[in-house]
Each structure stands twice: as structure tokens, then as C-alpha cells.
Amino acid sequence: MAKPSQPAVKPGDDAQERRNFFTKVAAVVIGGFVALIPAATGLAVFLDPLRKKSKAGEMLPIAPLGAVPDDGIPRQFPVVAEHVDAWTQSKQPIGAVYIRRLPGQEKPECLSATCPHAGCFVAYDKPTDTFKCPCHNSSFAVDGAIIEPSPSPRAMDSLESEIVGGEILVKYENFYTGKAEKIVKL
Ligand code: FES
User: Fold this and answer.
1) Through-space distance between the first and last CA atoms of the chain, rounded to whole angstroms
2) Within this chain, do residues 128 and 109 fall inside the same structural domain, yes or no?
3) Ligand 1 center to residue 146 CA distance, Å?
4) pTM for the whole thing?
5) Closest residue to atom 1 of ligand 1, CA basis
6) Which pLDDT tens digit goes with each residue over 42-99?
7) How is the beta sheet containing 167-171 ordered, strand by strand?
8) Residues 113-128: pLDDT tens digits?
9) 152 lines ligand 1 (CB under 6 A)
10) From the CA of 149, how far away is ligand 1's center (Å)?
11) Residue-wise burial string across 62-93, b where 16 or more C-beta atoms lie within 10 A, e elsewhere
């Protein structure tokens, strides 16, 4: 009985097969590499603390100067910073400040609203013209000075500010709580 004949091997088939194989391998390698780029970018952003903290310590726009009349009364404003990750860019609240201007004074005085004792938000009490912390009853004068007896180890944290183009900018920073010295959290 005659065996089925083998398909004839044409010259160059081997070379063609090798080319196809290398093309497939290259496609897999390049595809994998392209897929890794966004993942690596996301990981770099996630792991890069400097990038995350780059907004802290910058001069951030808080409010128009007209929003703080020079009557000595502190006004509270949220601090909003731009948050950037691998895929999105958005504005997020990162804290709050009190700003006031004394009569006839253009330059504002700015205090962090975070209590230096343990980090609660301090509230302004207009009838007594003082700040009070609801968590453990620390009290502060309107200029941020501590009113004894208070569990807070220091006065409210003052923040640098400036006016640019009619806008109040504040250098927003976080400080360690529970310490007598004002130490910036890096
Ligand atoms: S957190 Fe303000 S008094 Fe404790």
C-alpha cells in the first residue's frame, strides 16, 4: 500500500517560519512593555512621596483680599491643593486656615486651623473673640497665643502669607502635634 506522500518542502520555508516566530516574539515583548508603562508610571507616582508632598509648603491661593475686611475678625478658609496622580488631576481640600487683617493693615495674619495639641480643627468663638478646640478644650487668643490652662503645648501655628494680584496666598504647612516646638512635617 502506497504511503501518503509528504508535502514538498519548498526552499525558503524554514526561513519564513523563523521570521514568523521572531515576529510573534517581538509582538509579545513590545506588547508587554507597552502594558507596563502605565503600571510603572502609577507605581512611581504612588511611591514618590516628594511628588505627593510637593503641594505642601507651596504658596497656595486662598481667597481674594476683599474677602478679609480689615476689622480684626478671623475668617476661616479651606486650603485646596491640586492633586495629581498617574491618571487624574483634581483639587482636594488639605486643611483650613484663619486669616484676619487688623484695622488699616493690608497684610493679613494667617493661622493654621489645626490644633497643635492633637490635630483637631479649632473653632473661632466670636462672642469671646478667642479660638477654642472642641477636642480637649485648648483655648487661644485671637492672635493664636495660648490661653492657660490648655493642654496644647504651644500657640496656634502661624503661616506665611502674601498678596499677589489682589489674592491672598498662604504657605500651607503641617506641623507635628503634641510638641512645644513648631516642627514642619516633611
Ligand atoms: S486636639 Fe485640640 S485640645 Fe486636644
Assistant:
1) 87
2) yes
3) 12
4) 0.70
5) 118
6) 433 343 444 344 455 789 999 999 999 999 999 999 999 887 777 888 888 899 999 9
7) 59-64, 167-171, 161-164
8) 999 999 999 999 999 9
9) yes
10) 12
11) bbebeebeeeeebbebebbbeeeeeeeeeeee
Structural domain boundaries enclosing 34? 12-47
Please check whether residues 121 and 153 belong to one and the same domain. Answer: yes
C-alpha cell, 27: 509582538
Calculate how far, in angstroms, residue 124's C-alpha sits from the geometric centre of ligand 1.
14
CA of 118 to the centre of ligand 1 (A): 5
C-alpha cell at 68: 478679609
Going by alpha carbons, the residue nearest to atom 3 of ligand 1 is 136
28-40 in b/e form (b: 16+ CB < 10 A) is eeeeeeeeeeeee
Grid coordinates 500651607 are at which residue? 172
Both 16 and 33 in one domain: the answer is yes
